[in-house]
Structure prediction request, 258 residues.
Amino acid sequence: MYSSKLAFVFLSAILWMSCNKKLKTELELKKEQVEQLQSQLDHIQETNSSLLDRLSDMSVINKAGAESIQHSLENINQQYAFIEDLTTKIQTKDSINLALVTNIKRSLANINDEDVQVEVRGGVVYVSISDKLLFRSGSAILGTQAKTVLGKLSSVINDHDDLDILVEGHTDDVPMNTECVKDNWDLSVKRATSVVRSLQNDYYVTPERLTAAGRSKYLPKADNSDTQGRSLNRRTEIIITPKLDQFFKLLESPKLPG
Prediction:
């Protein structure tokens, strides 16, 4: 009986050792699985973190893009306002010029159109008067017809006291050299000065508004090769312009946004 118990104990020990070994094996397998799962989890966490970083970067980029678009829209709005304001000023100036041309033509209606031409060039009003209406040949002394022309013209000029007056003398290319006139430069300047002096003294145009200039033969309207061309080139041009301070004020308007 004693031997039977000993055999049972021995058998039980063998079975326990076998089960223990199996459990250890299974435990090792489970441990390996846990390590694999942990490795996968770490990888997933790293991937997730990377995705979150990318999303954060995209958010920053989108914010910067939105700010850039907003800035562009603000610039476009400013440009539109600038252009609209400038267009309004140009339309106003064009309306003033149109009214001015109409008034001048009406006041000079009884004078030959060939001797007086009124037009708008470069945004300003030009009144071109033939020399035969103002001066004797080769002279800078105003003739009798000059009072009629300058008197009518000055009445319109005085109605627009916000405008400046530039008087330019022009000649043909025939050389001049007399006791009173040295050359075409001298003649063109003296004629312009005579007109300016008459506008101030005879017709009360404010002298601060007046400028006299001579262009000699160097800005012809026609070819000097024939009599008709030379006749067109001998002229006095009265140029009616915005006051310089107002012009510079326009230039100082808010700059066009970049």
Residues 164 and 244 are 8 Å apart (CA to CA). The chain has two domains: 1-76, 91-249. The domain at 91-249 is CATH 3.30.1330.60 (60s Ribosomal Protein L30; Chain: A;). The mean pLDDT is 80.
